[in-house]
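Run log // design_07
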């Protein structure tokens, strides 16, 4: 379920409630939900997109995938699993006719786990922060 609202020419909001349920044969059913709030701001050469999401799932089987805006020619569809918060901020600025720049900060905070990830990707903290910077020069 979702709700879109253009507040004016500069601001827009998008709210969503997502639900997932997983069941397979004799395994116990698993379910989860996510509350997602996006905000977009556009003024001239500057655009800013942000998200704050709360998610709560029983386990990884009931994970919820949500598309996120990203830097040019990249995409992000993280799995929301367990209990926690996910946020990101994407800034795009057109410096000139030939130069563009992007900055993306994202963070996942788990509320009831001591680590994020597993195996070689495990981080010994309950949060993960990613930073992306991209510059483009057009010929």
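design_07 sequence
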């Amino acid at each position: 379920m979702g709700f879109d609202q253009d507040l004016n020419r500069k601001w827009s909001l998008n709210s969503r409630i997502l639900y997932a349920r997983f069941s397979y044969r004799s395994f116990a059913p698993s379910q989860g939900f996510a509350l997602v709030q996006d905000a977009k701001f556009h003024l001239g050469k500057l655009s800013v997109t942000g998200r704050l999401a709360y998610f709560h799932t029983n386990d990884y089987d009931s994970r919820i995938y949500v598309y996120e805006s990203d830097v040019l020619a990249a995409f992000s569809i993280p799995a929301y699993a367990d209990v926690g918060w996910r946020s990101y901020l994407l800034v795009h600025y057109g410096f000139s006719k030939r130069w563009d720049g992007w900055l993306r900060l994202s963070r996942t905070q788990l509320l009831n786990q001591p680590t994020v990830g597993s195996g070689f990707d495990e981080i010994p903290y309950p949060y993960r922060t990613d930073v992306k910077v991209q510059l483009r020069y057009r010929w």
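The radius of gyration is 17 Å.
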